[in-house]
Design goal:
Shape: rod-shaped
Order of helices and strands: HH
Structural class: mainly alpha
């Protein structure tokens, strides 16, 4: 077995399917994405509110 053959067998053994990922990890990932988007939108809304308050003064 040469180097190229051994690399291809290593790469094939490291393939990860969606079935192999535990359900709780995918759940935590979804919560993280939702949390990030929530705080991003919340921050943008506060910036807009502060901007409009400044414009009114």
């Amino acid at each position: 077995m040469n180097i190229m053959e051994s690399r291809s067998t290593i790469n094939q053994s490291k393939k990860i399917d969606a079935k192999d990922i535990p359900k709780w990890k995918s759940y935590l990932k979804k919560i993280g994405i939702v949390g990030f988007l929530f705080f991003l939108i919340k921050g943008l809304i506060w910036l807009a509110v502060l901007f409009f308050i400044k414009e009114q003064l």
